[in-house]
Structure formats: structure tokens, C-alpha cells
Amino acid sequence: xxxxxxxLAVIFIVADAAAQFQTNxxxxxTPPAQLSDWGNRKEVLTFIVxxxxxxxxTFKIKSEIKTxxxxxxxxxxxxxxxxxxxxxxxxxxxxxxxxPLEYMIFTGKYKxxxxxxxxLPADNYILCVQLVRPTDFTPAxxxxxxxxxxxxxxxxxxxxxxxxxxxxxxxAQTAITFRxxxxxxxxxxxxxxxxxxxxxxxxxxxxxxxxxxxxxxxKEIRGTTQFIWRPQLMFKEEVTDSLNNKNRENIFIWTIxxxxxxxxxxxxxxxxxxxxxxxxxxxxxxxxxxxxxxx
Amino acid sequence: MKIKIIGIFFCCLLLFCxxxxxxDKKPSFSVSGTMGVNYEGYGLSRKPAGWTGYxxxxxxxxxxxxxxPNFQFGKNFSLPFNINVAALPSNFAGPYSGxxxxxPKQNFNQWITNPVNNIAVxxxxxxxxxxxxxxxxxxxxxxxxxxxxxxxxVDLKPKTYRIKFFTGTSQQGINYLSGPPTITGAFKRxxxxxxxxxxxxxxxxxxxxxxKGKDVPASxxxxxxxxxxxxxxxxxxxxxxxxxxxWYVKAEGAQSIFTKDLTTPLTTLIKSFKPFIDAHTSTVKDxxxxxxxxxxSKDLDISVTTKYLGAGFQTTGYPYQQPDRLDYTLNxxxxxxxxKMNVVASVGQRVNNVSNTxxxxxxxxxxxxxxxxxxxKFSLNVNYNNFGFQSASGINPFGIKNVSxxxxxxxxxxxxxxxxxxxxSLSYNYSKYDERDVITGLTTSxxxxxxxxxxxxxxxxxxxxxxxxxxxxxxNAPGAKxxxxxISSALSMPAAKKxxxxxxxxxxxxxxxxxxxxNNNFIASCTVDWKxxxxxxxxxxxxxxxxxxxxxxxxxxxxxxxxxxxTGFQYRFDTKKNK
Lengths: 295, 579
What we know:
heterodimer, A: alpha+beta, five-stranded mixed sheet, 5 helices, 34% strand, elongated, B: mainly beta, 27-stranded antiparallel sheet, 3 helices, 27 strands, globular
């Protein structure tokens, strides 16, 4: 009988302790695809813990990422995870605390995808978070779950002028049409495409020109993936000059920078971090002017 | 101050060059190369006063110096310099951006590693080359090649062996500044690269490449807000084999280990690649490969090329490379009808998001250019390009689908008599661009018609060369109809006993958007190329552009006048020829 009473007392104490923690999980519905980037943006994930008064509670945060059918694909390695001590009534925790990738164990194809790309396959997921006691990992709070959708953004691919394309000088002096593919998948707010065209000066290579020159065209276009540029330029005639120096070709390099609704690069973890698409080079030549001389 | 130092340096070297000319006792020594200085001035006047709808697109003033002598000592030792510097930084893109007027001045280290400047010397003795200063070195397509690094290294080619090593800094630290003007900031990046290989030109090439770049997190204070310190290592194996009759096989395989944020914690859950790189939680490791097999000959080229970049493949040597894709293309070129027909074609597909970390997208690529010289008087060029892009729908009802089709026809007629040759060229291009809305599924078409007529007479007894052209451009996009009509003419001629080459060009464009009143654009340019001596030229290019809007913008009738003046002297020296 005494044993039963003692057991009931323990259960009561445990249940009472668990009741001390009220938690709330705030999670963006479409967080960044790169999991390590969640920690750089506090707006992505906030976990609020309210502790009861009069105690110095210590706990660990147990997080689980599940697919929509409930399969757990990643969970916190509780044996190694940090132990937190809540010194105030309300504590805020962010992605680096809730989803510490150095203590998260993923399984199967998700582990492979994360190791290769830092991202999970594009899909709907559920994040469940719960406080547990540091000693025996028994629950110290209710589990809180939130759904989210992951899909990494793919930057535009330049289409026209294609890489290395030679444009006719006469046509190009009036108008040059630029086209590119849109950001995939389409974000909830329209993307601003910043198109930039740089002239490659003598003694420069194209990438050097992109990184050092003032762009001849620097235009922000919202939502659409085509721009007709009226260069308003007279291109230098492609000639070998009187000292027989190398041909002065009209060479240009162009790229698209994709910006979000705050004018920030839409992807900052891939490539250069500037959300600039792989640049293309195009040349402008007078295709007709010299033909009679060769006759 | 820097300009003065550079000026004195140039003068000293020029004197040295001239002394070299006089030293006839040492015929084994020679100097060749070029040096020059170019000025570019830009002006922009906008009306009405206070209107800023058109922004300047060049630096107001810029001076560029170039100095590229090659000192040759005997047969085996050469000392080539490559010096190109600009008086003012004008960086806009990349981590170098931030040298903004009104912001902090760049320090010496930032100046010398700024890509607008290039100072290098590559002393070479037989097969051994020392590389000093800023070098743009391409080791392979998947390892490193796009970035300039200021540092030191070697390129050794004993017999068939290839040993290359280079180390230096590709980026100096730049402090973040909230501004205005805002300066994004950058971390200092140190790089090294190494190649070990064996090559016999025209027969084979086998090389291992290793390249690493690492940011120094403490190199900027305050650090950039959006840029994270990174570290990347890549190793690759290149194998090229060339067979008889022009057949070849080229292949490269690579693995990259890239840490996207060095401030993230170290982890044992991801395998490190010691001693080159330690894994952090933001470290990714992926593969890439490319291969091509083909044949090259005088009248026929054919090749099949494939390229795969894993979603996590990232290198510091190609910072803008877009990963996660698989390309395969078939390319061909052939000549027929005794070289009177030339066909260049390619067809292929690009698959993006192979890893499925985003929505899978496919892009079809097809190009054809067909030129036929039917007779001495008539030739025809036809080209067709198709780009189709389609992605899965994801959370939207419909996937993205963009298709671009371009068809061009360009007949050219030439005829001649005893006094002149004539060329008449007509070019017509039809371009159709369809976009599907991912919510409604409706496809909108965007059609462009371009017609260009060019007439180029060439007088056999006169030294003037005029040309005339007229162009019509019409684009019909949802909500916007743009019409442009352009006429232009150019005239080039020699003068002053052919020491001067003059060329002038005029162009007028009448533009119209929807039902707004027309806008007007007038451009004039002039080129003067003056051959002062055999070695010394003065080139000047002047252009002015006047644009007056209709009522398509507010204020109505806004206009601007922009002018550009480029003038430069160039001196070519060659002590061997001078003797």
C-alpha cells in the first residue's frame, strides 16, 4: 500500500513539474531551404517557454522533423544536446537552440540530401518540439508541432542573348531583348529581377568587368522575365587599329540578380551569396560592313 | 599620389626601354609590348531640373593606364609585365562592391586586389614560370578559373610534367557600413591552388587539381550583415585524350567540400576532409562531372557533351556557377557544297534540381544556323533558336512554362561594277515568347518582329565608305506595345595621307509605347584614329545621345543629353623591329 502511495506521489510530482512549462512554437510556413540558414534569421523560428515561479528548471529541447505521414526523419541527439536553464519566467529560443544541426540525427535519403546540399528534399514537413528533463529525457512539456514547406529557390537561368551569342550591331544599337527563366518555385511575393549589363573594357576579362565596372544597364524589373533594352549606344567598330593591335570587340557580360520584397538577395546561401545568376557574355559585331571588301 | 607614383614608374620603365633600344652591343636583349593611357569622360544633363528618371551609367571621369612590356633576355629568359590600373574604383557587383563615392577610401591592399586593377609580372626561364601579382588562372572547368588572385606561384613544365601552384588573396576585408552610403562589406579571402599533371600537346592531358579558398572571419569589423564567412575546397581530375583523325575524349570529375557559414558549429555528423577542411553544420559535400566525345575536322565537327553539377557542388574558383543541373547536348558543324554551305546546330536539354531539393525543371535547347552562298551575288542565312523551360507545379495549381522561339532569315545581295561594290542585306526576325501563369494556367504570348535593311556601297576609286540602314521593331506584350523605327548612316574615310582614320555615325529612333505620344532619340558619334608615328597612336571616340520622352512618363517631355568622350594614347615598342 505504501509503495502504491509513493508511486502515486512520484507521478503527481512529475505531472506537476511538467505542468510548469507552457510552450509555444512560432515557425515560418516557408522557411529557408538551407537548414543551417535558419539560425541566421530569427524570424524563421521562435520557441517560447514559460516556466513556473519558484523553481530553477533545467531542460533539453527535443525536436523532431517528420514527414506528413508521421515518419520521423530527424531527431535531436538528446545525450549530447545542450541543457538549458531558464532563469526567467519567459525564455525565447531560436533555430540554433531548437534545431542544433550538430546534434540532429537524420535518417536515410534525408541524411544523404542534407550532407550533399544542406537541404531536405522539397516537400511538406512537420516540426515537433518538446522539453524533456536532462536526466532521464522524460517529457517536461507538451509537444508542440508546426507544419512547414521546404523548396529551395532556383535562380533564373539566362536565356537570351545566349552565352557567346554574336548580335548584329545595327539591330543591337536600337534594341536588345533579354530573357531569363523565372525563380522557381514562384515565391509568394513577386520577385524583382535586377538586370545588369557590363561592358568589357580592353585588357579585361568578362568576369573582371562584372566585378569592377559600372553597369551600362542597371534596371529593376518586377515580376516579368523579359526586358527590351534600348542601349542608346554607338558601338565601336570592330577593327584592327593602325598599330595592328588586337581587335577591339564590343564584348558585354550580363546577369540577373533576384531580389525579394525587401530588396535583399533572394538566396544568400548559394553561389556568390548575391543571388546573381551565372553570367553570360555576348558580342556585338557589324556583320555586313566588311563583306564587299572581300569580294 | 598613386597616379604620380604610377606615372614616375612608367617614365622610368620607358627610359629603360629606350636605353634598351640603344644597347646594340647586346643583341640578345629586346623589349616589346605596349603602353597607354586612356581617359573617359561622361556628362549627363537632365531636364526638367530635379528629374532623376535617368541615372548616369558611367563614371564621370576615369583614367586607365596600361603597361605591358616583355623584356626578353636571350632565348630562354623573359620578363613580361602586365599592368592595368584605373584611377578610380567603380565596383558595383560582387563582394568588391562598396567603393561608393562618399564612402571610406580603399586602403592599399584593397586597391591592389581590386579587380579593376591588375599588376603582374611572370618571369620565365625555359619551362619554369614564376607568377607574381594578380593572376587569373584557369586550372580546369570545375576547379578554379574565374577569380583573380593577388599572390605568388609557379607554373613548371619540365618535359611532359605539369606542376602548378599559386597562393594569395582574392578579396580584402571590407567593413560593413550602414551608411548612407551603405557598404555591404566583405571578408578577406585567402586562396591556394595546386595542379599536378602530365601533358603532351595534341595527344593527352592528365591533371589533378586542388583549390581552396577560406575567408578570415575577423577581417572586417563590423562584419557584413548578409555575407557569411565561407570555406571551400575542391579536387578534380582532368583527362583529355586525342586520337587520330580528330577524335577526342575529354572528361573531368570533381568533388567539392564547402562550408557556407564558418560561424556555424563544428560537427562530427558530416565527414571532414582533413587536413584541408573541417566540417561545420553548414558544410556540404557533392560531386560534379563533365565529359565530351567528338571529332574535329576541316568540314565536320560533331560532339556529344554532358555536364553534371550536384546540388551541393560549390567552389570559390567559380563563385557564380549554378549547381544542381544536368546538361547534355549534341553539337555539330559541317560545310558542304565546296564550303558554300555552312551549318551549325545544337540540340540538348538541361535538367535543373536534379537533387529534388527544389521543383524539378527542364529546359530544352535547340539552335540552328544555316548559311548558303547560292551565287556570287546572293547568300541566305537562316537561324532558329528554341528555349523551352518547364517546372513542376509545387504548391501552385500550374507549373512554370516559358517557351522562346526565334526565327531569323537574312538574304544578302551583292553586285558590282567598275566603280563600286554594293551590298544590300535584309534581315527579318520573328520572336515568340510564351509564359504560363502558375495560378490561372493562362499562357500569354509576347511577339517581336524585327526587320533591318542595310545598304553598303564601297567605292573602288574613292576612299569614303558609307553605309545606310533602316530598322523596324515591334513588340507586342500583354499591356505593352512597343514600336521603334530607326534610321542610321555612317561614313568612314582616311585623311592626312592616311594618318588619320575618321568615322562618323548618326542614328535617329522614333519610339512609341502603346497610345502615348512618340519619344525621340538622336545619337551621333565620331571616331578619330591618328597614327602619329609607326609606334604611337592617338584614338578618340566621341558620342552624344539625346533622348526626349513623349507623355509615357511624368513629367511629360522629360529629356536628357549624355555625352561620352574616350581618348587615349598608345605606344607600341619593339626594340628588334626598331633596329
